[in-house]
Structures are given as C-alpha cells and as structure tokens.
Amino acid sequence: MIYKVYDNTDELNREAASHFEEVLTSVESPVLGLATGSTPVGLYKELIKLCKDEKISFKNASSFNLDEYVGLDAAHDQSYAYFMRQNLFDHVDINIENTHVPSGLGDNDKVCADYNAELEKHVVDIQILGIGSNGHIAFNEPGTSFDAVTHVVNLTEQSITDNARFFDSIDDVPKQAITMGLKNIYASKKIILIAMGENKADAVKMLIEDAPNTDAPCSILQNHDNVVVLLDSAAASKLTK
Ligand code: GLP
C-alpha cells in the first residue's frame, strides 16, 4: 500500500482521476468499481471534465457500485443509484445499461445473490473507495469477515449518525444497506482510497498502521498489492509512521 498526503484537494482529485484515465485509455472494456458519499465527488468532477475534453470515454466501460440503502428506490434523492446519475452517469458517455447498483427495493437475498453472480463474471480494473469514520469500506462495518461477499448489513449507530447530514432527520436514514463484501472489493485489480478531513484520521490510522483485523474492515487492504491511498493533511494527522 502506498499513501500520499496533499495540502491541495484539487491536486488530490486530479491524481485520483489520472489512475482512472490510465485504465480508461488502456483497457479495451474497462470495469470500474464506483463509490458514493461526499469523498468521490471531486474525482467524478475531474472525470466529467476529462470526458468533455475527449481525453477519456466511458463508451466501452461498465461499472459496479459498492452499495445501496435498503428501502430506497432508484428515484429517491438519497439513493446511491440517484447519486450516481447526478454526480457521474448523466454527464459522461457511459451506457447506463452497463452500470450496476444493487437494488434497495428487491428481495434482498436475491439481489445479493444476483450481484455476486454478476461480479463473478467480471474483474474490476479499478475501484474507488472512501472510508467510514469507524473504518468501514462500502458498508462493511467493524466485525465483518474478510471473506464476506455481497450481503445485507445492519448499519451501526456511527454510520447512521455520520450519514444523517444527507437526510431531513436521523429517523429518515435507512437502518440497513446492501453492500459488496470485503472479498468482492479485494478482488479488484487496483484500488484507490481517498480520505479527507479530521473525522477520518482514526480510520486512516487503522487503515495504514493497525495489523489487519476484522474490527478495522479497511485494514484488509494492507494485504492487497495494488492500493493507492490519497489523503489530505487532516486525514493523515494521526499517522505516526
Ligand atoms: C458511506 C458509504 C461509503 C463511504 C463512507 C464515507 O456510508 N457507504 O462507501 O465511503 O460512508 O462517506 P463520505 O465520503 O461521505 O465521508
């Protein structure tokens, strides 16, 4: 795992975008692993710019999103399906048929089984990740097995509180999500993880300095041989090494 610390978040986002650009311009049918939350928004803006400038194209790309809230349909403005259309898909030349976000409204067990089956047919070339303040990646909360595949998760109080800022009230935050498992994420060829802000500093310390353990789901990434971590100085502020 390599990590870089930036004073300037525009530079950080440009660096993240350059890794996607490399994949999009060199792989014939690139498979992208995509994330939601506030963290990847700057990266998506850079990718939209690169696409408008015709430096990259998503025409031959397909994508898999990490997760979705249970109970929100794709038209709900806080669903991750809606987020992806707003922040990326509607602004680039991707074929929407080739994008995958698990459905929050189906039969959960079937949605998970179908998503795993689809993931088994593809290898993600590049995965973008944020990180939860408790060290979760996607919605793999502390205690999740490193062998977990796509599953339904009961969100922790911490994750519900952290995400309440996007909803009218904390009671509106869904209590469950469908998430790719750590094993699915680990199967990506390359992983770019971005963390910004002081409230991510403890999670970043777990990610980089804790021995791999299931209480820190992000720590699984230490075993992966192609992970780039991009941090702002606040997120890196608790690193000791
Ligand atoms: C969310 C998502 C994660 C995301 C994390 C951090 O709950 N499930 O994929 O990385 O929490 O979100 P943010 O980037 O808004 O801080």
Please outline the helices and strands.
Blueprint: E1 2-6, H1 9-26, E2 31-34, H2 41-52, E3 62-65, E4 67-69, H3 80-87, E5 99-100, H4 108-120, E6 126-129, E7 151-154, H5 157-163, E8 176-179, H6 182-186, E9 191-195, H7 201-209, E10 227-232
Parallel strand pairs: 1-10, 2-3, 2-6, 3-5, 6-9, 9-10
Antiparallel strand pairs: 4-8, 7-8
Please give a structural write-up.
It is a single chain. This protein is an alpha/beta fold and 241 residues long. It contains seven helices and ten strands. The protein has helices at residues 9-26, 41-52, 80-87, 108-120, 157-163, 182-186, 201-209, and strands spanning 2-6, 31-34, 62-65, 67-69, 99-100, 126-129, 151-154, 176-179, 191-195, 227-232. The strands form two sheets. A seven-stranded parallel sheet has the order 1-10-9-6-2-3-5, with helices on one face. It has a three-stranded antiparallel sheet with strand order 4-8-7, with helices on one face. Helix 1 (9-26) crosses helix 2. The longest helix has 18 residues, at 9-26. The chain is globular, with a radius of gyration of 17 Å. The two termini are 13 Å apart. The mean pLDDT is 97. The protein binds 2-amino-2-deoxy-6-O-phosphono-alpha-D-glucopyranose. 2-amino-2-deoxy-6-O-phosphono-alpha-D-glucopyranose binds next to helix 5.
- What letter string, H or E per element, gives the SSE order? EHEHEEHEHEEHEHEHE
Strand order of the largest sheet: 1-10-9-6-2-3-5
Structure classification: alpha/beta
- Total count of helical runs of at least 4 residues: 7
Mean pLDDT across every amino acid position:
97
Radius of gyration: 17 Å
Based on the structure, what is the oligomeric state of the protein chains?
single chain
Bound molecules: 2-amino-2-deoxy-6-O-phosphono-alpha-D-glucopyranose
Please summarize the sheet with the most strands.
Answer: 7 strands, parallel
Envelope shape: globular
Distance between the termini: 13 Å
Strand content: 15-25%
Tell me the total number of β-strands. Answer: 10
Helix content: 25-40%
Low-confidence stretches: none
